[in-house]
UniProtKB/TrEMBL annotation, chain A:
Belongs to the BolA/IbaG family. This is Protein BOLA2. PANTHER family: BOLA-LIKE PROTEIN 2 (PTHR12735:SF27), BOLA-LIKE PROTEIN-RELATED (PTHR12735). GO terms for molecular function: 2 iron, 2 sulfur cluster binding. GO terms for cellular component: cytosol; nucleus. One of its GO terms (biological process) is protein maturation.
From TrEMBL, chain B:
May only reduce GSH-thiol disulfides, but not protein disulfides. It comes from Apostasia shenzhenica. Keywords: 2Fe-2S, Iron, Iron-sulfur, Metal-binding, Redox-active center. This is Monothiol glutaredoxin-S4, mitochondrial. Gene3D superfamilies: Glutaredoxin (3.40.30.10).
């Protein structure tokens, strides 16, 4: 089963209600591979590890079929002015 | 449980940073005692095994790994020859700090792979543990490297690196 960018976006949107979400398919056609940036209120007050855990949990269903996932940013709105 | 079956997992498989011994891991970990999956064997007659009796499972081995090795990485491949870009990245970042890194190659052992995932409740590799605590995967390690947290976290290890 191939996981698509749309699947990843849908899963993250429904669990984390992000105010910013960017999913980039980096698979180049071999194995599902994504990079993502996400801003969500659910990350407020959470450490980086916990924020990544929330992303992993949101993608629990897709993870077994994703070869590589790189979480570039997972920030709460308060830390996410478009810097860097 | 598959994890129980690997009660003989021993620590000798750990690869220290520049010692490429980890190819031993896979072989060393395979079923070295009789494991009874035999439902009609009364437990009194099942083979005893010290590790099993002491309740050692993959989980315990991981726990011991991370306790005894200040910087422990479970990765694809070995530090000298990573088999995945993310594992390579994590190793490269950690190597910036001149500290001893202990590693296990999860590609050589599916049960270890599953055991580590269950231990940390984290779905992907590499997985980095520092001073017994799960730190995260390569994204987190890189992030902590960039914001200085990693340096801080590793500072006392660096000082203690003369210790064998």
């Amino acid at each position: 089963m191939a996981v698509t960018k749309d699947d990843v976006e849908a899963a993250l949107t429904s669990s984390l209600n992000p105010s910013h979400l960017q999913v980039i398919d980096t698979s180049r056609g071999c194995g599902a591979s994504f990079e993502l940036e996400i801003v969500s209120e659910k990350f407020e007050g959470k450490r980086l590890l916990e924020r990544h855990r929330l992303v992993n949990a949101a993608l629990a269903e897709q993870m077994p079929h994703i070869h590589a996932l790189s979480i570039k940013k997972a920030l709460p709105p308060s830390q996410s002015p478009a810097r860097s | 449980m598959a994890t129980r079956m690997f009660s003989n997992l021993v620590l000798r498989g750990i690869a220290q940073s520049r010692v490429s011994r980890s190819s031993m891991v896979g072989q060393g970990l395979t079923y070295s005692t009789r494991i009874s999956g035999d439902s009609d064997t009364h437990e009194d007659f099942q083979p005893t095994n010290k590790l099993k009796d002491s309740g050692i499972s993959i989980q315990d081995v991981v726990q011991q790994d991370v306790k005894e090795n200040p910087v422990m990485i479970y990765m694809k491949g070995i530090p000298d020859a990573p088999r995945c870009g993310f594992s390579a990245l994590a190793v490269k970042v950690l190597q910036q700090y001149g500290i001893p890194i202990s590693a296990r190659n999860i590609l050589e052992n599916p049960a270890l792979k599953e055991g580590v995932k269950a231990f940390s409740n984290w779905p992907t590799f590499p997985q980095v543990f520092i001073k017994g605590e799960f730190v995260g995967g390569s994204d987190i390690v890189l992030n902590m490297h960039q914001n200085g947290q990693l340096k801080e976290l590793l500072s006392d290890i660096k000082n203690a690196s003369a210790k064998p």
